[in-house]
Amino acid sequence: MIITGTRAEFGLLRPVMYAVHAQANCELRVVVAGSHLVQPAVTFREVKAEFGIADSIPMQRVGKVGRLADVEALGNGILRFGRSLEMNDPDCVVVLGDRIEAFAAASAASIGGYPLVHIHGGDRAEGVADEAMRHAMTKMANIHFPATKTSADRIIKMGEDPKSVHVVGSSSIDGLDEIPPMGDGAFAEFGSPEVVVLMHPIGRDDADEQAAMEVVLQAMSDKRVLVLHPNLDPGRRGIMAAIEAAPIDVQVVPQLVRTQFIGLLKRIGKSGGALVGNSSAGLIECSAIGCPSVDVGTRQNGRERCDGWTTHSAESIESIRAGYEEVTDSQRIGSGHPYGDGHTGERIANILAGIDFRDPNLVRKHSTY
After folding, report:
1. Residues in a beta bridge with 276
2. Which residue spans of the chain are classified as CATH 3.40.50.2000?
3. In this predicted model, what pLDDT tens digit does every residue of 240-278 receive, in sequence order?
4. What is the CATH code for 180-327?
5. For a pLDDT cut of 70, what percent of the chain falls above it?
6. Strand order in the sheet with 93-96
């Protein structure tokens, strides 16, 4: 059972889902949750069209955003995932990352006695409560698929058995070579942007999140800007308020499917522009496809990054502008990235296919220290 809670996370899980489906001795069951089911986006339809859906787990409610709203959504999710596990009775549950949808599924699986597989554990990134939830899932998980050796070392230092830790790379790199740069027609429809802005909230109050987004938009006021909507984390309303009151003429697109998003970033990179904001895509995908990025603020603090393709800036107009000029300099040289070679999904599926998930010792956790 593979759990997906957001469109962005689904993009990372697709290669794993396809690889598992291709395994002769594996049956794939996909469960959608959380943001996939929140109006008006209802992105579960994309998942259903490709893989079918074994179950759906509503968590968030339209119009309810904030830390305490996330607590309520998490509680709803754990309860509903428990019922789904009883109905589907999977051999293992697969989650990725650090969001509340994955945390709810991980909690239900761990307490319910189902082997838990965690992808992208051991990373560092501040986010809203990312560090706490990601590392908590590591301690609940029985099989670990970190993206890098540094993350694997961190998991082992947390007391996990090295035999359960498999460095596989990041599935976000899988399939990038197959996506072409966005064509002239679609690029023109999006306003032929020089900059894509994607800022997610980091859990501050709405006023602070609005102020941070206003700074980004002001810093890019002399560019053609395409803005994507933020995720549903606490503080979203502040960022949306800044977008709606943007002092410059910006093109606003709520969401893009992954192929459009990557194609757009490739076109931006070829055109001498950049991604500006605090999405992990600026550190992982951008470095793999040759798109410069400016990482704004603290959301990705601690995450491994590729020198040459990305730079960090403070939440100030001067710092963001300086970062943009730095990464779009035609003399830049991007170094290799640490996130794998594009075959992560296959590695994960091959390892899962060889595990005896009915071994009772698999779910019995023992710290190594």
Report:
1. 197, 294
2. 2-175+342-363, 180-327
3. 999 999 877 899 998 898 999 999 999 999 999 999 999
4. 3.40.50.2000
5. 96
6. 55-57, 30-33, 2-4, 93-96, 116-119, 143-145
The residues, any chain, with a CB within 8 Å of residue 204's CB and separated by 6 or more, are 212, 235, 238
CA distances from 135 to 6, 141, 194, 212 (A): 20, 10, 37, 28
Question: What's the alpha-carbon Rg for the chain, to the nearest Å?
Answer: 20
Architecture per CATH, 2-175+342-363: 3-Layer(aba) Sandwich (3.40)
Contact 286/292 with Cβ under 8 angstroms?
yes
Q: Write the DSSP assignment of 64-128 as a string of letters.
A: --SHHHHHHHHHHHHHHHHHHHHHH--S-EEEESS-HHHHHHHHHHHHHT--EEEESTT----TT
Nearest 10 degrees: CA dihedral of 190, 296, 145, 159?
-160
